[in-house]
Amino acid sequence: MNGKVTSLQFKSDHLRHTFELPVYLPPNYSPLYTYHLAIAQDGRDYFQLGRIGRKMEAAMEEGARDTIVVGVPYPSVEIRRKWYHPGNEAHHTYLQFMVKELLPFLEETYSTWRLAHGRMLMGDSLGASISLVAALSYPNSFSRVMMHSPYVDENVLHLVEENKEWNCFDIYHTIGTEETEVKTTNDSIEDFLTPNRRLHEIFKKGTARYFYNEFEGGHFWKYWEKDIPQALRFMFDI
Predict the structure, then answer these.
(1) pLDDT digit string (tens) for 85-99?
(2) Which branch of life, at top level (predicted)?
(3) Contact predicate 71/25, CB 8 Å
């Protein structure tokens, strides 16, 4: 890999937490050029398990736009659920953190396109859910979403049905055919596949640039990691 993986320390007043953000910088990064920005929820997982730096670099070699990837790691499973879950009021605080703290900080640190279409959000499970909710809540800030096996409940379905901003989005959406009995972080067993198919039915009726895929497998990183190259090819139209 010719690019560079580094880290940034960032203190959030909204979340009262100091992050160590993993960052992938493209080969020959220069502040004289302007880059696309990708923000990954479950950031440490995307870097360590998903190898997002290598996969983004491979996508750029195939023609994807030069992109900086920033991961947002969670401090604990319990806090992750508190921040990401669409049924938890605290997720509103996390959205404020992303738009009012993190995004301005990244734009001050790096030279990035300050347009919604120059920014991509990605995540798995609850990380995918909060990525979608963030774009729906702030469509002028984010309009590209890459989702691996998102947690979908009535809150998410209602938001998508009521908010038509997503018709101008680029959306990649994948779910495993074996995700019918997923053990969640609060130890409940839930069907992810059925609500994802309901979400798919809504999206396919709209005008978004949208790709849906069902892979043979369950709710595990070994499947998402293999899917990332296809997801990036779609997101960058290569």
Answers:
(1) 998 889 999 999 999
(2) Bacteria
(3) no
List the Cα angle 150/154/158 in 5-degree steps: 100
Q: Distance between CA 238 and CA 233 in Å, rounded?
A: 5
Residue whose pair of structure tokens reads 């398990």 in the numeric block = 49
Q: Which residues contact 162 (CB under 8 A, 6 or more apart)?
A: none
pLDDT tens for each residue of 17-49: 999 999 999 999 999 999 999 999 999 999 999
Residue 121: is it exposed, middle or buried by C-beta count within 10 angstroms (0-12/13-18/19+)?
buried
What is the span of the domain harbouring residue 209? 4-235
User: Angle CA(122)–CA(128)–CA(131) in degrees, nearest 5?
Assistant: 65
Token representation of residue 222: 């070994």
Total number of domains in the chain: 1
